[in-house]
């Protein structure tokens, strides 16, 4: 074997890489999306995989902003934001909130910023982000809610503070703005055994003492929405990154009483929420009773490579129901009426 290379060289063969390197085929990923394909690879308009996990969506004018965890393989790298006019095609707008380089900061690189949600405050004109914060090097011990503020939906967000609302542990969380503009933080507390709700201050920057237990059923990943006069709440069980059975609760008032309706999922793998975990329910404007259930199908071996499950919420017998669909588009909501 060791004589082979000199022989080739003597015969005039070159060891250099040929100049005409094959060009990668134009990426199919850049073609415009016209449908949702739950669980499939979802690329942004630059052709990169969307990296916005545990996220939520905010509508500003006619533009949607999707905020979510920016993940490396395991590491947290801040909160990403994407924009879209049609919900299928998303443009990367950058990092809305980056971990701090200052090692003394609560959000020092190495911390965990999970399940970010952004709401707009009409009174102050500010965009307010809440997320679940775990301090660097402490695993999931800190169990804090954290707040950041921006003048623009794309940020940059300025970190404001972190705390345990009214002294309660706060891990998985969501935000909800009611019809009257009052906003609420819903959160898993007491080692995730309790699900609690606290009303936010008028500027949305802090929790008020109006804070109570909704139920103690060891649930997390709360996604709250309202249809007609009813509030609905989808949650998951507590099995870390592994999927489990979802449940749906209903209430006439946000602070309850909340009544269990059961598991709203149906179709293949429905008993494990199709392999996903709830993160948000997005009301689709301009369409009556149209909501999109958003979930994450986590890949704990490579978190950035986790998939998104977006499915329509349907109303069957006047109750929210979520059926598995390989592919669907917003026309679905017109057909349903
Ligand atoms: C899940 C939670 C995720 C993340 C994960 C870590 O239960 O919903 O947001 O915290 O645990 O194991």
Structure write-up:
This protein is mostly beta strands and 337 residues long. It has a single domain, classed as Tachylectin-2, Chain A (5 Propeller). Helices cover 4% and strands 44% of the residues. The protein is built from two helices and 21 strands. The strands form five sheets. Strands 17-21-20-19-18 form a five-stranded mixed beta sheet. A four-stranded antiparallel beta sheet has the order 1-2-3-4, with no helix packed on it. Strand 3 and strand 4 (91-97) form a beta hairpin. Mean pLDDT is 92; it is low at 1-26. The structure holds beta-D-galactopyranose.
List the helices and strands and how they pair.
Layout lengths: L3 H7 L42 E8 L2 E9 L4 E9 L6 E7 L14 E10 L4 E9 L9 E7 L7 E6 L9 E5 L5 E7 L4 E7 L6 E9 L4 E8 L2 E7 L10 E5 L7 E4 L2 E2 L10 E7 L7 E7 L9 E10 L2 E5 L7 H6 L1
Parallel strand pairs: 17-21
Antiparallel strand pairs: 1-2, 2-3, 3-4, 5-6, 6-7, 7-8, 9-10, 10-11, 11-12, 13-14, 14-15, 15-16, 18-19, 19-20, 20-21
The site of beta-D-galactopyranose has 10 residues, from strand 5 and strand 13.
**What's the alpha carbon Rg, rounded to whole Å?**
22 Å
The CATH architecture comes to 5 Propeller
Helix-residue proportion: under 10%
Q: What's the arrangement of strands in the largest beta sheet?
A: 17-21-20-19-18
**Content of β-strand:** 35-45%
> What's the CATH C level?
Mainly Beta
Short description:
This protein has helices at 4-10, 331-336; strands spanning 53-60, 63-71, 76-84, 91-97, 112-121, 126-134, 144-150, 158-163, 173-177, 183-189, 194-200, 207-215, 220-227, 230-236, 247-251, 259-262, 265-266, 277-283, 291-297, 307-316, 319-323.
């Amino acid at each position: 074997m060791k004589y082979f290379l000199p022989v080739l060289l003597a015969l005039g063969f070159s060891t250099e890489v040929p100049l005409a390197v094959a060009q990668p085929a134009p990426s199919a990923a850049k073609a415009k999306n016209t449908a949702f394909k739950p669980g499939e690879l979802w690329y942004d308009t630059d052709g990169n995989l969307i990296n916005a996990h545990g996220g939520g969506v905010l509508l500003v004018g006619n533009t949607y902003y999707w905020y979510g965890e920016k993940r490396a393989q395991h590491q947290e790298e801040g909160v990403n934001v994407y924009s879209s006019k049609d919900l299928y095609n998303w443009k990367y707008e950058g990092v809305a909130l980056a971990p701090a380089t200052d090692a003394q900061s609560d959000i020092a690189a190495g911390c965990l910023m999970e399940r970010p949600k952004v709401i707009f405050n009409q009174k102050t004109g500010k965009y307010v982000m809440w997320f679940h914060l775990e301090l660097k090097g402490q695993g999931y011990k800190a169990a804090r809610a954290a707040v950041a503020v921006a003048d623009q939906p794309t940020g940059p967000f300025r970190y404001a503070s972190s705390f345990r609302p009214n002294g309660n542990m706060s891990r998985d969380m969501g935000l909800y703005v009611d019809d009257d503009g009052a906003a609420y933080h819903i959160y898993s507390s007491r080692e995730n055994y309790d699900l609690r709700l606290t009303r936010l201050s008028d500027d949305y920057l802090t929790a008020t003492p109006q804070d109570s237990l909704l139920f103690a059923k060891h649930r997390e990943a709360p996604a709250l929405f309202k249809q007609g006069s009813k509030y609905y709440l989808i949650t998951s069980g507590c099995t870390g990154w592994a999927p489990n059975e979802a449940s749906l609760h209903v209430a006439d008032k946000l602070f309850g009483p909340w009544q269990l309706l059961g598991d709203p999922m149906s179709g293949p793998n429905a008993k494990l929420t199709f392999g996903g975990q709830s993160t948000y329910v997005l009301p689709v404007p301009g369409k009556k009773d149209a909501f999109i259930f958003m979930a994450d199908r986590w890949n704990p071996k490579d978190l950035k490579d986790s998939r998104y499950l977006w499915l329509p919420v349907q109303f069957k017998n006047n109750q929210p129901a979520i059926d598995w669909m390989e592919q669907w588009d917003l026309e679905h909501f017109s057909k349903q009426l």
